[in-house]
Amino acid sequence: KYRTPICVFLVSLAVTVCAVWLVALCGVCGWCQRKLGKRNKPGVETADTPDSARGRGEKKAIKGNKPANSPKGHPPDADGHSSVTDLANSLTGDMVMLSPGSEDDDGEGPVSEKLGRIQFSIGYSFQNTTLTVKVLKGQDLPAKDFSGTSDPFVKIYLLPDKKHKLETKVKRKNLNPHWNETFLFEGFPYEKVRERTLYLQVLDYDRFSRNDPIGEVSIPLNKVELGQLKTFWKELKPCSDGSGRRGDLLVSLCYNPTANTITVNIIKARHLKAMDIGGTSDPYVKVWLMHKDKRVEKKKTPVIKRCLNPVFNESFPFDVPAHVLRETTIIITVMDKDRLSRNDVIGKIYLSWKSGPAEVKHWKDMLARPRTNVAQWHSLKA
């Protein structure tokens, strides 16, 4: 009689106990999950929410202080500065790029070093069938020697004949030479003269090695009125046969007056002259610190095998007290490594306050911008 109410009561009690047990169990699991998550991954946001992803991106940019001009493919270091390998490809915030031609130039164009100019006269005597060429003077010639000057002379040709040439005297240590020499090409009929091109090549005389070309001027004689002696001023151009081109080197200088140091960064070279039979070179760079024509310290880069456009990215600090700055010269020599014979000199740069115009400009810009890497392209010289 009382069995049915008792069964209903027991079933209800069992259901209630099960429900309470399930709720408690779910609550404990959730609490454990939260605790374990906090213990193992502190501060981690949910990865699959757009807002949290955007927040992490902003946080990373602020922490890294990522520079706006970092090159693509080259992430910055932890302190926000570009790595050393970026030096050859871009300019970091503390580097100034200059060029010999213009302070506003980005420095990536061709090196526009001025080669000076030459004054000469041309005339023809119909009576004597003689062509007269007077080499008068040069002006603002570049320095080719370590002493900051040159020993210029002029070769005269009537192209296409290269076998017969005439030469002026050498003017020692003079960037504005006066030759005032007259040369006669006798026995030339006027019709033959008009088929020729007057070619003047200015060179720097070197007693112990090959003469270094400075520049050239050519003028077709069929474009000149030869009846009277006429005088011309012509800007010198780089030698068309390539004899004057040895390549360019990108160098940065940094002067620290507090530490009394000059840091020379050999960054990269371009269009180096091929010195090997295979049409290439194995270049490396030597850097000499000179004081009053005496060698003080030498450093050099590794050799880059078979490359005419090598990237070096080598930095060399030198101790240079302020009182010897005016007597200091930095000689940078690009060499070609040869295993079987003596290493060849590809070209040199002389950096000081008394070198050529481009070199002096770089030196002065370095002193005017202390603690700043001042970069500039330089043409290599013999």
UniProtKB/TrEMBL annotation:
<dbReference type="InterPro" id="IPR000008">
    <property type="entry name" value="C2_dom"/>
</dbReference>
<dbReference type="GO" id="GO:0048791">
    <property type="term" value="P:calcium ion-regulated exocytosis of neurotransmitter"/>
</dbReference>
<dbReference type="GO" id="GO:0042734">
    <property type="term" value="C:presynaptic membrane"/>
</dbReference>
<feature type="compositionally biased region" description="Basic and acidic residues">
    <location>
        <begin position="51"/>
        <end position="61"/>
    </location>
</feature>
<dbReference type="GO" id="GO:0017158">
    <property type="term" value="P:regulation of calcium ion-dependent exocytosis"/>
</dbReference>
<dbReference type="GO" id="GO:0030672">
    <property type="term" value="C:synaptic vesicle membrane"/>
</dbReference>
<dbReference type="GO" id="GO:0030276">
    <property type="term" value="F:clathrin binding"/>
</dbReference>
<dbReference type="GO" id="GO:0005765">
    <property type="term" value="C:lysosomal membrane"/>
</dbReference>
<dbReference type="GO" id="GO:0005544">
    <property type="term" value="F:calcium-dependent phospholipid binding"/>
</dbReference>
<dbReference type="GO" id="GO:0005516">
    <property type="term" value="F:calmodulin binding"/>
</dbReference>
<dbReference type="GO" id="GO:0006906">
    <property type="term" value="P:vesicle fusion"/>
</dbReference>
<keyword id="KW-0812">Transmembrane</keyword>
<dbReference type="InterPro" id="IPR037732">
    <property type="entry name" value="C2A_Synaptotagmin-7"/>
</dbReference>
<keyword id="KW-0479">Metal-binding</keyword>
<keyword id="KW-0576">Peroxisome</keyword>
<keyword id="KW-0770">Synapse</keyword>
<keyword id="KW-0564">Palmitate</keyword>
<dbReference type="GO" id="GO:0005509">
    <property type="term" value="F:calcium ion binding"/>
</dbReference>
<dbReference type="GO" id="GO:0030670">
    <property type="term" value="C:phagocytic vesicle membrane"/>
</dbReference>
<dbReference type="GO" id="GO:0050796">
    <property type="term" value="P:regulation of insulin secretion"/>
</dbReference>
<protein>
    <recommendedName>
        <fullName>Synaptotagmin-7</fullName>
    </recommendedName>
</protein>
<dbReference type="GO" id="GO:0000149">
    <property type="term" value="F:SNARE binding"/>
</dbReference>
<keyword id="KW-0106">Calcium</keyword>
<dbReference type="GO" id="GO:0001778">
    <property type="term" value="P:plasma membrane repair"/>
</dbReference>
<dbReference type="Pfam" id="PF00168">
    <property type="entry name" value="C2"/>
</dbReference>
<dbReference type="GO" id="GO:0051050">
    <property type="term" value="P:positive regulation of transport"/>
</dbReference>
<keyword id="KW-1003">Cell membrane</keyword>
<dbReference type="InterPro" id="IPR037741">
    <property type="entry name" value="C2B_Synaptotagmin-7"/>
</dbReference>
<dbReference type="GO" id="GO:0001786">
    <property type="term" value="F:phosphatidylserine binding"/>
</dbReference>
<feature type="domain" description="C2">
    <location>
        <begin position="114"/>
        <end position="234"/>
    </location>
</feature>
<keyword id="KW-0968">Cytoplasmic vesicle</keyword>
<dbReference type="GO" id="GO:0030100">
    <property type="term" value="P:regulation of endocytosis"/>
</dbReference>
<keyword id="KW-0458">Lysosome</keyword>
<dbReference type="GO" id="GO:0030424">
    <property type="term" value="C:axon"/>
</dbReference>
<keyword id="KW-0677">Repeat</keyword>
<dbReference type="GO" id="GO:0005778">
    <property type="term" value="C:peroxisomal membrane"/>
</dbReference>
<comment type="subunit">
    <text>Homodimer. Can also form heterodimers with SYT6, SYT9 and SYT10. Interacts with calmodulin (CALM1, CALM2 or CALM3). Interacts with CD63; required for localization to lysosomes. Interacts with APP.</text>
</comment>
<feature type="region of interest" description="Disordered">
    <location>
        <begin position="39"/>
        <end position="86"/>
    </location>
</feature>
<keyword id="KW-1133">Transmembrane helix</keyword>
<keyword id="KW-0268">Exocytosis</keyword>
<feature type="domain" description="C2">
    <location>
        <begin position="245"/>
        <end position="378"/>
    </location>
</feature>
<dbReference type="InterPro" id="IPR001565">
    <property type="entry name" value="Synaptotagmin"/>
</dbReference>
